[in-house]
Amino acid sequence: MPITVTLDVMLARRKMRSKELAQEIGITEANLSLLKSGKVKGVRFETLEAICRALACQPGDLLVYEPSNGPPSPLGREAAE
């Protein structure tokens, strides 16, 4: 997937543990772990906002787009038309 979650990097920069962040934003450590590993299909804006507030960062500090070399998605073609 071309979107990489860099939450672990931001946690390290802020010297915060996953357990501490999970408690602060009100989600389980298991769900936070899934998010950190990129094994989720999506994230609620409410959750993203809480993470950004707790870590004093922007969404772009947590998510990185890395284009793949495959064919463009159908959505990309529609947007270009």
Measured distance between first and last alpha carbons: 24 Å
Structural class: mainly alpha
Cα-based radius of gyration, to the nearest Å: 15 Å
**Uncertain ranges:** 77-81
User: How many individual β-strands?
Assistant: 2
Order of helices and strands: EHHHHEH
The portion of residues forming beta strands comes to: 5-15%
- How many DSSP H or I helices? 5
Q: pLDDT average, as an integer?
A: 89
What overall geometry do the principal axes of the alpha carbons give? Answer: elongated
- Give the neighbour order of strands across the main sheet: 1-2
Helix content: 40-55%
How would a textbook summarize the main sheet?
2 strands, antiparallel
Give an account of the 3D structure.
The protein has 81 residues and is mainly α. It is 52% helix and 7% strand. The chain has a two-stranded antiparallel ribbon with strand order 1-2.
Keyword list:
single chain, 81 residues, mainly alpha, 5 helices
Short characterization:
The chain has 81 residues and is mainly alpha-helical. Helix content is 52%, strand content 7%.
Write the layout of secondary structure elements.
Layout: E1 3-5, H1 7-13, H2 18-25, H3 29-37, H4 45-55, E2 63-65, H5 74-80
Antiparallel strand pairs: 1-2
